[in-house]
TrEMBL record:
It is a multi-pass membrane protein. The chain crosses the membrane at residues 48-68, 89-114, 120-140, 152-171, 289-310, 330-351, 363-380, 386-403, 424-448, 454-477. One of its GO terms (cellular component) is plasma membrane. This is Lipopolysaccharide biosynthesis protein WzxC. The keyword Transmembrane helix applies. Belongs to the polysaccharide synthase family. Keywords: Cell membrane, Membrane, Transmembrane, Transmembrane helix.
Amino acid sequence: MSSNPNSLTGRSLRAIKWNYLGTVGRILAQLVSQIILARLLGPEPTGLFGYALLVVSLSALVTEMGLSSALVQTSTLSKEQLGAVVSRLLLVAVVASCAMFFLAEWIATALFHAPEAVPVLRAVAPTFIVSALSISPAALLRRELQFRALTLIGLGSYLFGYVIVGVGVALAGGGVWSLVAAWFAQSISACVALNLVARGSFALENPFFTNGLEGFGTIILFTNLVNWVIEYGTQVLVGRVFGPSSLGLYNVTNNLVRTPANHLVVNLQTVLFPTSARVQDNPASLRRAYLTALSGVALVAFPVFTFAAVSASAIVDALLGAKWVGASQLLPPLALAMIPHSAMAIAGPMLNGKGEPGVELRVQIVTALIFVASLIAVSARPLVDIAWVLTAIYTLRCVWMTAEVCKRFHVTAKDLYLALRGSVLLATVLAVSIMATETVVQIAMPILAAIPHLLVQATVGFGAVAIFLLLFPAAFLDSHLAWLLGRILDTTPALARFPGMTRIARIAIRKCP
């Protein structure tokens, strides 16, 4: 199972390794800072900043115009093309910043019925310019699979922005402005670092120059816009109908599970897209890449998010406290939604890398229409019902996108079964273990404190998963995951010293295709 370190496979595996080496630190940094800020601020300030995030996230997609993905996907990139992209991004960013500043009052009052959000919207308006200056260096680093630099920059800027600046301003009584300060500290520090590392990424040309990237970028733009409706439509409804406190409650609960989910899939997406673009004419390589990624993501997503759903009350009590008691009802549906979200997120970059972005766009448009109709139908229902609608929509989208990938990459139903079987079994073991333990705890220790309660559930649940995985690895490793494990052990021999890894490695060798 040796591999050429200079091959595309070797470079991709190193990229994935660096992505996931930074993932643990980034997840911990984000979760710790979000939990501390949530405890310090409460739902309403968090919700006020949530309005700004909704507007910025949508406007950023428009100003980016899909050009970041186009820079990565194109086979050749000239200096003139790069300069035209940078100039166009800056021009649109300046216009967007001015528009958001002057339209802030209308956006806050007419769209969200939240006039108290006006100062926050105006304060974050310049963020588009900072983002525009970050797009081309980040895209060039992705294009060259330089994920070590991207990982270190992402982790370092987040630690500086949210853990140091954000928490510091919140402790000083800054309220919602602690989140604004954290946002700018993170984005500006990342922008500076990206441009220092990716030298030559800044160039200026005629912004109206036709550079040949518009076609692909336009499809990506519309796909991202439709995807935004699916990702953020719930927050728009909650913020408009229920107000800033409910929006803050929903956002913080959602972030508890979306933070690890996004790191799980985004790190893989950033590698899968450029890798797929390089092997887009090799169906066998695409098929193996998809099944390997699906197996690996499912092996993490099913147990982790099943734990979050089953242990929702213990998680909210221990991490967020009494101010956020309503989150315990929202966490189960939002956690379960992350399983199809994680699985679906693999399909998009692979289809885009293959040069078929229109497939995802079609799926997203129909899904978004169904989602909007569903949100309208349940807009008068309790917040938890809206969360369950999101879970159903994510599941529908995942099934459809998976079917599209299977059709193009010649993946059979048996392939999917083998890729997902072990993950479903592990999630079942975890859920049964926690529910059995909870029954015992309620009888023997009914007044167990919040943090020890959560630790007991986590220890029993993931302990059971580890035991089953070490005792019966053949039941949980399909051939593609075994191939990936073998490659990782080849490049990182130190992992073989962990208990049980030698036995798992032998099984991986036998199963490797």
